[in-house]
């Protein structure tokens, strides 16, 4: 994978044109790239990520399929790994949206030139990516860097994405939920098929549990303090007895909760510092489990449940 693609923007664009193409949301086509349907704008960034990224053993990688809780996981990983530097009440997340603190490799770091010299960043560097596991550069796989993956019931993910995309009404056009559902169901879905994305990280976590921690949105929501502790252990930032006694785990879980993050001034009224189309409040909608039932027709629900059963059967994974 890593050798076949040029590093030059023009040549990348030419090469992309020869890939299978599919219509997605208005103005946002997908190409079948290395086995996954990737949004046009993300492909050059992924190629550069694959060919240029040099992982450090101390790097922390926040990974997810879009709308599965990336924003939340960014906050948790940042707070846990930086707690010796910042106090809870005065940390960078009170002034910046999590996406401006933990940059996306394909959408921020390698999309805009120049973004930032990655070499001068202090440890631990924290990055995020929606790149499926099989497409990650060998530099990450071969280093001792840690990968955390946030998964979610894909029906809730779909509803979340439909609302999110609905904010981007390109030239007044929008995609109905039934049209969007057909794309989701066919697997022609940005970074998808969604179930293949989830299964790729699930399998990697089973094969190498010290390298990949697989989380479920629903479980973290149910018991956030358990997972703050779990993340601390996994990432190499375990909580000391003193910190446990001081209630540090609870404080981080509470700070990163949907209610707290949504109501921070920066997330209520701010805009992304890094050039992007969305206002910060777009990343905080409802934060609930099971919201899909409010949007699916009975026939959509039947088809979606069957699809999930088929795709996840035998994997040991269910939502
Ligand atoms: P909903 O649209 O269902 O509310 P991502 O961060 O991957 O873009 O995912 C966005 C989803 O995560 C949205 O789901 C959003 O509300 C939810 N979310 C954002 N921050 C959260 C938090 N701190 N806790 C729980 N859910 C959160």
Nutshell version of this structure?
Keywords: Transferase. This is Sulfotransferase. With 319 residues, the chain is of the alpha/beta class.
Question: Can you offer a commentary on this structure?
Answer:
Helix content is 43%, strand content 9%. The protein has 16 helices and 7 strands. A 4-stranded parallel beta sheet has the order 5-4-6-7, sandwiched between helices. Strand 1 (21-22) and strand 2 form a beta hairpin. Helix 3 (70-81) packs across helix 11. The longest helix has 15 residues, at 298-312. Adenosine-3'-5'-diphosphate binds at residues 64, 66-72, 156, 160, 163, 256-258, 261, 283-287, 291. One of its GO terms (molecular function) is sulfotransferase activity. It is an enzyme of class 2 (transferase).
Characteristic terms for this protein:
alpha/beta, 43% helix, 7 strands, four-stranded parallel β-sheet, EC 2.8.2.-, binds adenosine-3'-5'-diphosphate, 319 residues, three-stranded antiparallel β-sheet
Rg over CA atoms: 19 Å
Unreliable stretches: none
End-to-end separation in angstroms reads 32 Å
Task: Please count the helical segments.
Answer: 16
Largest sheet composition: 4 strands, parallel
Query: Which band does the percent of strand residues land in?
Result: 5-15%
Helix percent reads: 40-55%
Counted beta strands: 7
Average per-residue pLDDT, rounded, comes to 93
Ions, cofactors and other ligands present here are: adenosine-3'-5'-diphosphate
Which strand order spans the largest sheet, edge to edge or round the barrel? 5-4-6-7
Class computed from helices, strands and strand pairing? alpha/beta
Series of secondary-structure elements, N-terminal to C-terminal: HEEEHEHHHEHEHHHEHHHHHHH
How does the overall form come out from the CA principal axes?
globular
GO molecular function, one term: sulfotransferase activity
InterPro entries: P-loop_NTPase (IPR027417), Sulfotransferase_dom (IPR000863)
Domain Sulfotransferase: 57-316
Protein name: Sulfotransferase
């Amino acid at each position: 994978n890593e050798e076949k693609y040029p590093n030059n923007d023009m040549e990348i664009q030419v090469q992309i044109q020869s890939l299978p193409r599919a219509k997605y949301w208005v103005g946002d086509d997908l190409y079948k790239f290395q086995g996954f349907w990737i949004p046009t704008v993300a492909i050059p960034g992924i190629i550069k990520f694959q060919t240029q990224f040099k992982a450090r053993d101390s790097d922390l990688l926040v990974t997810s399929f879009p709308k599965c809780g990336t924003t939340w996981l960014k906050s948790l990983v940042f707070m846990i790994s930086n707690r010796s530097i910042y106090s809870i009440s005065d940390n960078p997340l009170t002034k910046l949206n999590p996406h401006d603190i933990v940059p996306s490799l394909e959408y921020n770091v390698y999309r805009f030139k120049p973004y930032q010299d990655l070499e001068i960043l202090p440890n631990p560097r924290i990055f995020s990516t929606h790149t499926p596991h099989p497409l990650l550069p060998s530099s990450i796989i071969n280093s001792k860097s840690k990968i955390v993956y946030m998964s979610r019931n894909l029906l809730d993910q779909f509803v979340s994405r439909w609302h999110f995309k609905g904010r981007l009404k390109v030239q007044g056009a929008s995609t109905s939920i039934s049209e969007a559902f057909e794309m989701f169901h066919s697997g022609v879905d940005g970074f998808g098929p969604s179930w293949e994305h989830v299964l790729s990280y699930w399998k990697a976590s089973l094969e190498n549990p010290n390298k990949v921690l697989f989380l479920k949105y629903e479980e973290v929501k149910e018991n956030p303090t358990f997972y703050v502790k779990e993340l601390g252990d996994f990432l190499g930032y375990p909580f000391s007895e003193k910190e446990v006694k001081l209630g540090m785990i609870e404080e981080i879980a509470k700070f990163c909760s949907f209610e707290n993050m949504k109501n921070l001034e920066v997330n209520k009224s701010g805009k992304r510092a890094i050039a992007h189309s969305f206002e910060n409040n777009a990343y905080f909608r409802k934060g609930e489990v099971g919201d899909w039932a409010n949007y699916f027709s009975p026939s959509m629900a039947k088809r979606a449940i069957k699809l999930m059963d088929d795709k996840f059967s035998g994997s040991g994974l269910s939502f």
